[in-house]
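REVIEWER CHECKLIST
Item 1: Sequence provided? yes
Item 2: Single chain? yes
Item 3: Sequence as submitted:
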Amino acid sequence: MTLPAGHPAIPRRRIGVLLINLGTPDAPDAGAVKRYLAEFLSDRRVVEIAPILWQPILRGIILNTRPKKSAHAYGLVWREDGSPLAAITRAQAIALQGAFGPNVMVDWAMRYGNPAIGAKLAAMKQAGCERILLAPLYPQYCAATTATANDKAFAALAGMRWQPAVRTLPPYHDDPAYIAALKAAVEASLATLEFEPQAIVASFHGMPQRTLELGDPYHCHCRKTARLLGDALGRELIVAFQSRFGRAKWLEPATDRTLEALPGKGVTRVAIVAPGFSADCLETLEELNIRGRESFLAAGGTDFAYLPCLNDRPVGMEMLRTLLQRELEGWNLPA
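Item 4: Structure as written out by the authors:
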């Protein structure tokens, strides 16, 4: 078709897949961490306290004390190519390019920090994406993760005059492809160890107990993932929840206390896996592999192993291809 004179160029029609993860500071320094935490902890999905009560605490105390400590932790795990979470999510997007045909582009974004969801959606629309699959990479649904990622995308779409059609990736906590990938990854990691773990701990990110009472399915999703993975491995897993914050009651048992108690029960050789994380990050590499290891050994443990997340390993990428292809079905662009 010949366009009229002066008509703007029309990009080739495409479908977009946007991988979304939590977020990360731009650098492992106090200033960058402060900016990141200010955005993260101001999200009403994350901290469900009235802003009039919460913001003075956040601005007056937390953002003046926590960034320096968190920056040190980030510095322990920071890579040459940046934050582990950002680097791995980028690698996942690159690995999926071309996986769904020439008319499907894959990109990535972070809910907090950069690259921002709104900017990536605008770039996809500019590149000709008429249909976009939003893919929050959280196996277990939680309002503070999956829902807020979708919220941010929907807010960006609300500012578009010509919106693309949109789908969202549902939680996949019990999907056979996900459980099979976890099983394969855990078994491969266990095969490299020089000791036989007496127990395997499945550590999930914690949430306030109140979220469960309000109807959030996250706790149930975590428990089901652990049960199915344990069944697949042929051994029961110890379920625990990490990353407590503040004084409110959180989901239990706590990972740190669980690790500290195991040697007293005769369990001195342990492996720990984090099935709620699609990519290794501060919470796995520093909180589990460094601090968790230290507390377990200090309590009398003799052998500790952290088993990496699926990340961009072939087994994990094949699982993501399977899930995303399923959600893209029926989205063949007309000629």
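Item 5: Key structural point noted by reviewer: Strands lie at 14-24, 104-113, 129-136, 165-168, 199-205, 238-242, 269-273, 303-307.
Item 6: Recommendation: ____
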